[in-house]
Amino acid sequence: MQKSDTRQKPLLSPNMICIAQDATSSTFSNITAGHSIFGASNFFNSAFHRSNFESTHFSACEFDGAVIENCSLRAVQLKNCDVDGLVIDGINIGSLLKLLLVK
């Protein structure tokens, strides 16, 4: 008699398309979901820790209150985003941008 493989497939994996997902107050730790697309999804108050979202596209997603920790943000682009209150390593980037963009 052969034992069946009881390991579960990860909920997130590379090359996924996820639309209108609610991941409020979730924890993403050691996740690999590169080259994926997330659209109109909520990540309110979620934690991202040591996860790989290389070349992933987030469109119309909410990250209010999220914490991104020990992750690479190289070559990340924020386009048409509300960065009010955005803090990077204790520096309030949202406030700095407001000062720089005052006309």
Explain this structure:
The chain is mainly beta and 103 residues long. Helices cover 8% and strands 21% of the residues. It contains one helix and eight strands. It has a three-stranded parallel beta sheet, with no helix packed on it. β7 and β8 form a beta hairpin. The radius of gyration is 17 Å and the shape is elongated. It starts with 16 loop residues before the first strand and ends with a helix. The relative contact order is 0.15.
Mean pLDDT: 91
Low-confidence stretches: none
The percent range for helix content is: under 10%
Structural class call reads: mainly beta
The span between the termini is: 75 Å
Q: What general form does the structure show?
A: elongated
Order of helices and strands: EEEEEEEEH
Alpha plus pi helix count:
1
How much of the sequence lies in strands comes to 15-25%
Oligomer category: single chain
Largest sheet, strands/sense/barrel: 3 strands, parallel
Quick one: how many beta strands?
8
Radius of gyration: 17 Å
